[in-house]
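User: two proteins, same treatment. go.

Assistant:
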Amino acid sequence: MTGAAGMIGRKLTAKLVAEGAVSNKTITRMTLADVVAPPKPSGFDGTVSCIVADLEDPNTATQLIATRPDVVFHLAAIVSGEAEQDFEKGYRINLDATRALLEAIRIAHQTEGYFPRVVFASSIAVVGAPFPHPIPDDFHTTPLTSYGTQKAICELLLSDYSRRGFLDAIGIRLPTICIRPGAPNKAASGFFSNILREPLVGQPAVLPVPDTIRHWHASPRSAVGFMMRAASMDLSPLGARRNLSMPGLSATVAEQIEALRRVAGEKAVGLIRREPNDMITRMCEGWPTGFDASRASALGFSAETSFDDIIRVHIEDELAGQV
């Protein structure tokens, strides 16, 4: 697993330990890699390697697959805001490192017959305005950010390497994950989580966009569920279309705030401070507002259907059930 020290990586690791198996095969070894040391999971009886990995080094990919894992979760990336600010770094990490990983697998396939399942964390940023609402699963990919472009290129690589029979891959287009636990990151979409996470623990939060902004969301719990499903399902129904838009919830900022009011009360809502930011607003206006994820749903993927549920998941998973 690359990106194992990240939020989704840590939660996915914990889920894998709890389940103990993927596709009815017992997990005996995990290789967890990130730019910082991933935490070693507790309660796992198998072998764990926690690797500090520089994905910008093309030799790293060969090291990571040295034990020939049956499943490769490729979660490592730099987020949208950082990829936009640092053009070269975005392409090195989000594109070049992915290509190096796929190449290492291809070479191992050609020399040893190695043929793993690869689960790639893609993004709804692969599509760009103008688009319909909801966006159909076969809508063309015309990203309007460097991050989205990098993810879209990786999706094409994933499909081609699968078509050529080097690996068995699926790309998971994640909605914006909300509510993200922990400190804010550099993602431009971070305020969607901030305006809920901070008020739930009595802290103020800044809202930089109008209440009318609409976006596509799913919880961290759902994101882990997507990854687990992708790792274990039969991919033959995908054919050549290896990348899927995941189910989620289309909601406005106003609907988020009303859900917060229902779950945590007026005092929590009162901690949201409006500080309009024209740049962030313009970015949001070019983001997807919702998807027709019927193809993924038919294949067994699911997510929350209300923001009340998304908030309750956060309270259960991060706040010990209490606000």
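Protein 2:
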Amino acid sequence: MTDAATSMVGTMPVPDKDRLDEARLAEWMGANVESFAGPITLSRFKGGQSNPTYRIDTPAQSYVLRRQPFGNLLPSAHAVDREYRVQAALFPTGFPVARPYGLCTDRDMIGSMFYIMGLADGRNLWDGSLPGYTPEQRRGVYHAMIDTLADLHNTDHEAVGLADYGKPGNYFERQVGRWTKQYRASETETIAEVDRLIEWLPSTVPQQDRVSIVHGDYRIDNMIFHALEDRVIAVLDWELSTLGDPLADFSYLLMNWVTEPEGRSGIKGLDHGALGIPTLEEAVERYCARTGRAGVPDLNWYFSYNLFRLTGIVQGIKKRIVDGTASSPQAEATAARVPGLAAASWHFAQLAGAK
């Protein structure tokens, strides 16, 4: 098992700082969750730095609770109500999300907004090289990831009640503005590459020709795979979802192919043919075939944008460490990645023509 799988998969006892009022939670679930019957036992999932996530076990069934962090939050961050809304809209369509059971917006109940969903019981994968898998199994996992993303982007967002889930206009323009603000709101030091990116990205935003539901953090460890079959049974962590340009999600997934293997999603430089992993070109071809695209534009701008956005996300984690509200034991190691992410983003910006 890789370091990431050891440290991020599974549950642990609930740390003191993350404890919930179990009696109030059980009372709320009794009134709002269909077929619920206590008593409950709580543990916390190891993975995830943003919204603390708990496993709730009862004698008959298991559930998952996701809540906002306690303490002061950045504007628009940790929107668990939006996470709940998109999953509740997608669940009836058959798209693979966990079953939504209920949303509580009353922060007085357990100290923060939260929602309850079903537990998707399957494989949670962290290492994109899929050690221990056969080439055929690896190909199946990658095809499932690509096909599921294509199916999300093919979903009629208006028909499922999400016509107002995002703002009109160019998605990347909005997102560059948003992550610039988020970065500035959590800035702890001056990084020259970030300042250059904040100037360059808004002036080079590509045209947008499609609008779809965008997951916002679509990667291998944010989905649960069927225990035996090559299919996704639940896409997780919809915190960054909105309406926007589907190329945001797809280029983010393609980042795996240009990221060094580090026990996580990166597969750059691996022998894809021998491993059974599709090449970047094969991934593009499969996604385009399923979504009816003729092809994708030059990806370097998109890679730069994705890394800039990651820089903003990780800087937010760093700021929460400074403020004492970071929710994960892995948060400090994650925060140390900020300068490297900024440098990598500027590298792709230069490949896309930045001077």
